[in-house]
Amino acid sequence: MKVQRYKGTRDLAPQEMADFRRIEEIFRNYCLQYGYREVRTPLIEYLHLFTSVGTLTPGMLGKVYSFLDWDGWSGERVVLRPDGTIPVARFYIDNLKGLARLFYVANMFIFDETGKKNRERWQLGAELIGAGSPAADTELILLCQDILRKLGISGTTLKLSHAGFIKAMLGGLGLSAGEQHRVFDQILDGNAAALAGVRLSNPKLAETVFSLLNTQGKSAGFLRNLKSLLASELPAAMLPLDDFIRVTDLLDALGVQYEIDITSEAGFEYYTGLILQFFAGEDKLGGGGRYDDLIPAMGGKNIPASGFALYLDRLMSLAVKPAAENKAKRVLINIKSGEADAILQTFKLADALRGAGYIAELALDGQDLANFGWTIDVQGKPLCFIINNLINGRRFEAESAGGLLKILETENAGKNRPA
Amino acid sequence: MPVRIALPKGRLLRKTAALLQKAGWGLDEYTSRISFYRPKSPEFPDLQIKVLHEKDIPIQLAVGNYDLGICSRDWVEELLVKYPSSALIKVRDLGYNQSVLCVVGKSNAQAETRIVSEYPNLAESFALKQRLGGFRIFPVWGAAEAYPPENAELALINVKSEAEMAGMTMVDRFLDSSAYLIANRDSWEQKDLGKIVESICRQIDSEEKPLALTGGSVEAVGQTLKPETDTIWIALPDGHQQQFTVDLLKCAGIQIDDYPSETGNRRPELKMAGVKVKVIRPQDMPQQVANGSFDLAITGRDWLREHLYQFPASPVHELLNLGFGKVRMVAVVSNEVPANDVAGLHQIIGAREKPLRVASEYIQIADRYVRENHLSPYRVIPTWGATEAFLPDDADLLIENTETGRTIARHNLKIIDTVFESTACLVGSKDIGITRAKRERIQTIVNKFKAAVEV
């Protein structure tokens, strides 16, 4: 029977791994420059961490990989991490206090019935815990934009919504607490039509709300219009709208372009304030938002927080590929004699080349020359290195590793010279 | 390709047999008296009929072993709620054997809610829908109604009347169930099942009214019972181990009332101060002792082993071998298989493309047996009884317990290996977090049993 890869997962081939690491590196560098510090939480967590109200929507909970592990006699289920924010919040509660800027690179597991989408998804996430100001939300948006720009992904759209505003609207429609939850979850699962079919005690407001769910704005002005429209009918929406306006004012001042789209496929019930999503065309590149109630709901102190995650798998297919690897730094060493001394010299030479910043490989069976800029033949007594520049076809000889390195340096410095 | 249909054993058998009788199938061998798994219908001579445990039917249809099946809706939903993409279609409500799957007991708003059920997937779906923050699901083989309020806050149980709710409050009417005709999706799309389906559907009575049961407010929240720290809970087995247990208790000088109970009472009274008893399934006992619901239990070494294979860190251990209820755990193949031992089976499967299908009620024991014997590739098919019916068409190997081997021989099967021998045993927990008074009480009872066994 053929050995198969588990459905819905992917292997990352060497070239894909190189892309993966490059994107990860760009993400890490920006996070570090913004003052974020890296954390790594376990792949496996207790299921109950994700099941309370205010964590994941039921739509997402129905797709987590949960099971009874070796300790499962207690009835306690465990889960392969379906989300990055909740474990980081747990980590924060256990270990930190005050302001914390944290980031992570981690894989998430969500079941996909078709087996066509990835069930293992890599995310680049950043969490800003302990800050509740619009400046904090704006910092995350700018960090995200810097990363996407550096990756060379053009034409990205930033879409904004506000969980507090959505909740205020649902509250104003006279839905029961249970229905509010259900509809909120469905809106977060991307179902704008969730309100249809719900019995509403305030049909007039409902009409306004329906049309709002389908309109989009592009500036703080749009939100001010909403504010004046709803001021008398929906006073509960004023506070969240003010918060929303403060963030968009900042973004307007910084010249950051965005669209306001109230329905959002966010999937996380823990959002309380701004919800942000980045798109490239139809492709969602990532998203995040403010989750001020999550840490208190998990037993921590009353600490505000917000964060985002970028989907590494999507970025890999969209990021601009770097120029091909520099062959001039790759050297293949052939051992031309079976003498012990020659073999010893070969290993020493490889070590010297690596010390000087070259990638040095010993020629073994089936080596493809296409990847190399140089080959070196090592001969025994008397010791001699025959150097072939595969880029320009020139040939040299050296008697010592030091002499050889000098030749490589000189040649590489003038590598554009014609042969 | 002949059409294959799976018919239920157990609670649906009588009415299903009556329906098919009316439809003129002439299934003389489909009665509750005979454990015969392949009845023939003179009306549909090409139809391949298999009698299976009801709970196995949706799974067997979903994997494509049968085209049609009759079982109750609750088992279909139990499969679909966890595996919504299963290749299963609910064809028609047959209307009979109505029951209600309901949540009884009292949910616990503050602390963790323990839910006991034969339907763990539906129980989990209930907990998630209710957004219970902390919950634990305890899957059981049966007797779920016996657990609340002491050993669980809620139970998801199947009832036909309020009397079956054992005096508990209904928290949620979760699902109305009745017998259903179901089909494998591919068979439904590609095969001509028309005559069979028509012959069954023609006999359906007009819609019966839904069962009247009261209750069903999810807000019914209560306080958790304070555990009585010094009381000992003992789990006694239901089923055919009961008589042995009665004898043992008598020998140990322990008096018990209403066990075995004619009325199905699961709380007989033990004449010993500070000791309480519940009657549950032996299969469920190791886990219930592990999680502290019971302090002592009389179960089988087979079920203890099954539990410890799954949860090696479990605190449950054997305190005493009780000696009765001796069975052998055996590896069984069809007489048609040209192998008389594991080595022979090895040779046969080495030449096959398909994985070895291993059916068993003992999933962990079966899994370890095939793994340790390197019989791979393999798949373990969990079953809920009547496992002999699976060979040779729906499985290649069984891991089964047997007393005499006669049932196995009667079904044209043969034993190729003995995995181990099992007897009844007394189990307890290594958990040391109990009071001294309780520990002493436990020791007194263990000593009484020990003396009785040594007689």
β-strand percent of chain B reads 25-35%
The greatest interface between two protein chains, and residues involved on each side, is: A-B, 19 and 31 residues
Q: What is the CATH fold-level name of the largest domain in chain A? A: BirA Bifunctional Protein, domain 2
Question: What would you say the CATH architecture of the largest domain in chain A is?
Answer: 2-Layer Sandwich
Low-confidence segments of chain B, ≥5 residues, pLDDT <50?
Answer: none
**CATH architectural designation of the largest domain in chain B:** 3-Layer(aba) Sandwich
Question: How do the helices and strands line up, and which of them pair or pack?
Answer:
The complex is a heterodimer of chains A (419) and B (455).
Chain A: H1 14-33, E1 37-38, E2 44-46, H2 58-61, E3 66-67, E4 78-80, H3 85-95, E5 100-109, E6 120-129, H4 134-150, E7 156-162, H5 163-172, H6 177-188, H7 203-213, E8 216-217, H8 220-230, H9 238-254, E9 259-261, E10 274-280, E11 283-290, H10 294-297, E12 305-311, H11 312-318, E13 330-335, H12 340-355, E14 359-362, E15 374-379, E16 384-389, E17 395-398, H13 401-413
Parallel strand pairs in A: 1-5, 7-9, 13-14, 13-15
Antiparallel strand pairs in A: 2-4, 3-4, 5-6, 6-12, 7-10, 8-9, 10-11, 11-12, 15-16, 16-17
Helix pairs in contact in A: 1-4, 1-11, 4-9, 5-6, 5-9, 8-9
Chain B: E1 4-8, H1 13-22, E2 48-52, H2 56-62, E3 68-72, H3 73-82, E4 88-93, E5 99-105, E6 113-117, H4 120-129, E7 135-139, E8 154-159, E9 170-177, E10 179-184, H5 185-190, H6 194-201, E11 232-237, H7 242-251, E12 256-257, E13 269-270, E14 275-280, H8 285-290, E15 296-300, H9 301-310, E16 316-321, E17 327-334, H10 342-350, E18 356-360, H11 363-372, E19 378-382, E20 397-402, H12 406-410, E21 413-422, E22 424-429, H13 436-454
Parallel strand pairs in B: 1-2, 1-3, 6-7, 6-8, 11-14, 11-15, 18-19, 18-20
Antiparallel strand pairs in B: 3-10, 4-10, 5-8, 5-9, 12-13, 15-22, 16-22, 17-20, 17-21
